[in-house]
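Re: Re: token formats

Sure, here are both.
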Amino acid sequence: MTQEWTQQLVDRVGREVRRARTASSPPLSGQALSDRTAELGHPISRAVISDLETGRRRGLDVADLIVLAAALRISPVQLLFPELPRGSVDVLPGRPHESHDAVRWFAGETGLFASSGDWETGTGESAKVWTREELAPEIDRITVTRQWLRAIASMRGAQSQIKRALASEEPREQISTLEDLYDDARDRAEKLVRQMTELGMDVREGDPRV
């Protein structure tokens, strides 16, 4: 099953490479796509691209996946799970998910569904029960980073509103409310920085580009 699943993944990427290449405006030839990968510093030959698109390719490097996506100007995850939003895909062998769920898991937004056993129905029949697994909080760097970026964005938004309120001489009560929003966002950001530091993450000085 594992070998079959692996090849399905490679074939899926190949089909999406071909679809995206021909749907580009203007459409890209196989050689033009190959030239783009060379410009990105990781050349992938026209022959390799052709083998991938026609299902003759038996494997795919992560580096090739990333560079092909960049050359096509799409996200790498779209090559992996292109049947959005609700096309079924085996994220793992024998683990079907809708494609939008697969994308969310790959992006670190949520866990996968897993079978938690059988549930007895009122008729005496059994049915599979699927529950969503949680991402491991002690090693999950994606969620805490996303929360930190949201807190930074909230701080910026509150700062902008305070400046506008001061410039237009809004009532002091309204300005105080905005200052409270800024303080709350700053406190969240500082708490998250401490959490990120405990996870051994790279939290350096400077304003993130969000």
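Second one below.
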Amino acid sequence: MPATSPAQPPATAPRPRSAAPRRLMTAAAAALIVTAATPVTLAYAAPSASVSPTAVAPGGRVALNITGCGTKVARVTSTAFNEARLTPGSLEATNLFGNATVFSNANPGTHRVTFECGGPGGESVSVSLQVTPGAARGGTGGSVGSMSPAQIAVGGALAAGALVGGVWVLRRRAAA
């Protein structure tokens, strides 16, 4: 019997290299170049503004804030207060802020507050400010006006008792 050799798999021809990896790398490089060439200004979203508080009595102050301008200054106008300029807190800040005082004779109702990035003619956004009837409270800020005389008397008695107790403890320690 003739000697048989172990079965060997048929020889395979080397496969040709696929062009797919090269095409994939070319597409990735092209995407990277397009992304790098896109202007930075597209990264800014539409401006977003706020007024705090949203309801205020005539003579009250409001805080004004806007983000997304892409500028370092903004102008705010309203029928409720004088024109205000907003600026960043630092060179790296992305939001602009400022304050305004509502006219003491402002009409109660809803007033439009318009924020303009960079000043007149810039990109703008508007929000509402509600001016409530009545004057702004001063002095104690209204903390006493809503209290009854009995509540004021109890609070005063508690404060006086705490003072007397503190003096008694300090004198006792000093005597010991």
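Residues 39-44 have pLDDT under 50 and may be disordered. The radius of gyration is 36 Å.
- S.
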